[in-house]
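User: Some background: our group keeps a shared notebook of sequences we're curious about, and every so often someone picks one and asks for a predicted structure to add to the entry. Today it's my turn. The entry only has the sequence so far, pasted here. Could you supply the structure so I can complete it?
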Amino acid sequence: FDVAAPSTVPSGGKSAKDTKVFIAELVLESIDVEWVVVPKEAPTAFTLVCQSAHHELDPYVLLLGPASFLVNNSFSTKSALPLVHPCEFFTAKLGPDPSIRATLSPLVQKRTQATNGTITFFSRRLAIHNTRPSALPRLVVRDQVPVRGASNETKVAVLAPAGLPVGEDSWKGVAVREGVQARYAQKNEGERLEGAKGDGTIEWVCTRVAAGQRLEASLVWEVSAPTGYSWTVS
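Assistant: Of course. Here's the predicted structure to add to the notebook entry:
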């Protein structure tokens, strides 16, 4: 790297650990802030995520390591910064936001007998409440359904949200209501062609959640299995 101006940097001793040296000021091409919540893992805490890309003309590579993040010129948190090359996107977690609250209803299970086996229905509801005094530009709510086992004896079908695209069109999702789109979580947000993760994760992408607004989502799926076949959901 290049140091923009001559600077004396201590090379040893205790003072060297606390010395900060200005290297460069990078212009970010875009900064998008979004709130991500997984109610079954953290029902009352959300993670604030910042996604950015620095300009392709910047010759600097952002090195892997700890970094301090400031919001409105005030210290926010310390987070891990990945190795980022020019024009690459990166995601940095800025910590929980307790003012965004989530509740998850108990899982409801119902089993019925079919012609050649059994069908078990699962359902639960997710509720989100934005108690912040300001709107959220983007909120992502995630939950997960089981995937087919290695034996291929079982079949899993998502009933709600209905009509989720699969394959290379999985990134498009389906409109649940105005400002809310459901889809299978993608491997890479910046590359549509990589497709869905394939782990059964479903996400509701909400644009502009108003201050004080409450949102609800339903997740319903069924598991079909042949008669006498034993299976569990892990």
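Suggested note for the entry: The longest strand covers residues 117-130. The CA atoms of residues 116 and 226 lie 6 Å apart.
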